UniProtKB/TrEMBL annotation:
Pfam families with a match to the protein in the record: Sigma70_r2, Sigma70_r4_2
DNA-binding as UniProt keyword: yes
Family: Belongs to the sigma-70 factor family. ECF subfamily.
Positions of transmembrane segments: none
UniProt keyword Transcription, yes or no: yes
Superkingdom of source: Bacteria
Keywords: DNA-binding, Sigma factor, Transcription, Transcription regulation
Name under which the protein is recorded: Sigma-70 family RNA polymerase sigma factor
Domain RNA polymerase sigma factor 70 region 4 type: 124-171
Length: 182
């Protein structure tokens, strides 16, 4: 079953049967790393696990309604973006000086610096307009190409390029203002 493409796994995972659980588990293992990077970039590393759990619960509940009008990965990224937006709306925005410091006591200094940088990046991303944040996050953290992003967001290719360009410029400004050299 490991060698089956998504196009064959999704129907197996969508409908009751003896292969449903195994097919769904394979989809989870196959796509979770990329989705986790995407969620971490949007909501921060501390909330990404919760978002990912919400994504997979939603996918499990709604997979039978997937119409395959787009690629499964396109639909999956849209579900992830929606879960990230829900998580961002649910929590109060924190000013930068209230971003929690890394809590690991046994991490070396470098790991602490990287955790701080990730937290500052998550803060800066949260300050972007949603359409720019989505496009930048799908490109830089999700690894999608421009055409895939256009499919996920339901916009034209030129719009994707514009949003990414503006989002990157805004991120540079936000990060520079807090002492991070992008």
């Amino acid at each position: 079953m490991n060698s089956l493409p998504d196009e064959q796994l999704v129907p197996l995972a969508a409908h009751p049967g003896e292969q449903r659980e195994a097919a769904f588990e394979l989809l989870v293992r196959r796509h979770s790393p990329r989705l986790h990077r995407l969620a971490s970039g949007m909501v921060g590393p501390g909330s990404a696990d919760d978002v990912l759990q919400e994504v997979w619960m939603s996918v499990y509940r709604n997979l039978s309604g997937f119409r395959a009008e787009a690629l499964f990965t396109t639909w999956l990224h849209r579900v992830t973006l929606n879960a990230c937006h829900k998580a961002l709306a649910a929590r109060a925005s924190l000013p930068l000086d209230e971003v929690p410091e890394p809590t690991s006591r046994h991490s070396p200094a470098r790991a602490g610096e990287q955790a701080d940088l990730r937290a500052r990046l998550a803060w800066a991303l949260s300050r972007l307009p949603p359409e720019q944040r989505d496009a930048v996050t799908l490109r830089e953290l999700g690894g999608l190409d421009y055409a895939e992003i256009a499919g996920v967001l339901g916009v034209e290719l030129g719009t994707v390029k514009s949003r990414i360009s503006r989002g990157r410029a805004a991120l540079r400004g936000l990060l520079s203002a807090v002492g991070v050299t992008p």
